[in-house]
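Forwarding the complex inputs:
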Amino acid sequence: MDELKTVRELYGEPRLDPLLKARVRGLLTDEPRRRRWRLSWTAAVAGLAAAAVAMAIAVPGMTGEAEAPNRGATLSGRSVLLAAATTAESGPASANAYWRVRKLHRRTYPEQLGRGANRYWVVESRLTEQWVARDGRVWSASRALGARPGSEADEEAWRRDGSPTEWSSQGEVLSTSPEKGELRAVTGQVPFSMAGHEMTFEQLQRLPVTPAALRDWVTEAVSDVPAGTVDGVVADALSGLLWSKPSPPDVRAAAYRALAELPNIRYLGGATDERGRKGAGFSFTVQPPGARSGTAVQRTLIIDPDSSQVLSSTVTGPPEVRGEQVELVLAAGWTNDRPAVPELP
Amino acid sequence: MTAMSWAAHPAEDAQVVRLSLDESERFSAIFDTYFGEIHRYVAQRLGADAAEDIVAETFLTAFRKRAQYDPSRAGVRAWLYGIATNLIGRHRRVEVRTLRALGRHGPDPDTPGHEEHVAVRVSAESLRPSLAAALAGLHQRDRDVLLLVALAGLSHEEIAIALGIPYGTVGSRLNRARKKLRATLGETNPMLESEEAGRG
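Prediction (whole assembly, two chains):
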């Protein structure tokens, strides 16, 4: 007999209460009296993370025009970011009721589906929308648009598998059909986070408005990340101000100018997003490659310097994650539209 | 919420934690993936009643410290076990009380699983009170290592990172704990094979 096994026998299997998980989630999110539990992640937001894309959309492509990828923002990359900053500066102040971001997301489901010899990768799409009112109220909507086999080879394997329209994997159900979607009001949450720190609407409005001060502020905020990852996290936090948060115009302008000076932003030249919108591509690595294989995450943003909007974000890596996670920004800005489940695109 | 986020998957953990720095809602995928096994571990050590709060605190702590998480050092799973173990350490009296109850009554008989080990379980019945007492008598730090191996199935390397102790220390704590248990079990059951220490 092995004493480790004896120990396991002694402890046995705790009883599984089917409601337990929901209850613990509730402990984390729904008890404002116990302030120490307050948490923003389940925040609603849950929707934001997810997202989706119609399969009809063409494969993404950086349609590089002349400009070769380069280390650091080149002169032209820098001028694109500075032009975007100028546009951002004159952007509309927050006149309407809600700040709203609507996104289409796409990713490859991380496990092959199918039976026996017929295994294939499936691509999922999702539409999400988040509204934030000036008083801090948050609503989040999410709607799966359906999953499809990824490549042609995947589609053939799917046919041989009997063309199923539903899969269950790891406790999740995937379907080829769109969901009706749901809208929920998010309560007791801080709606935003930056570089790992919760941020309220008011805090965003008070961020520094000069590039150097903003960069210093962010760098200070991320000083607790592992050595060697600071540059990537700073770039991610600065770029997050451009598209996932209701940053005021002068903060957005400062973020663009600060990005223009970062050595770890690569300019990829002219680029077209999956909806055919033209812009300029930039990328940075959030984890340093090389420290240990499998930890690098790269984000590529396509921005439109004429509107200063971020059009799309594509995340790739680490290597064990198949495919890319694409988010297309369909709308970002102030609106008087009321929170609602998004229409199918 | 679950329905609203992508299904979580271990291969994506490090990416999820990293991206959750700027998009905190992504962290809910980590909760969805690991809630089950972290709860199991905490409930085994502290009992179901205390487990709810401790598990909530584990994920809350992980969320707050996600900036310090270094994927090149530890997997997300080992990282979460380390946080849970540190929190369990603050509830020593609850753990000892739980062990005393386990010694008297054994685990909840309603729980499924382990049918294949009926024979082992029966023979363990007689050892239960002394085994529980021996576990309660271990140093907290030795018990942590022993249970991370026995209950969580972590490797020595994962435990070293999760608890922030040198690799060699994991082995020596585990050996010390196993030796004490074996002494206890050996006294009670002379048929017990002696087995080489240091596995896991």
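Chain B touches chain A through 82 residues (CB under 8 Å).
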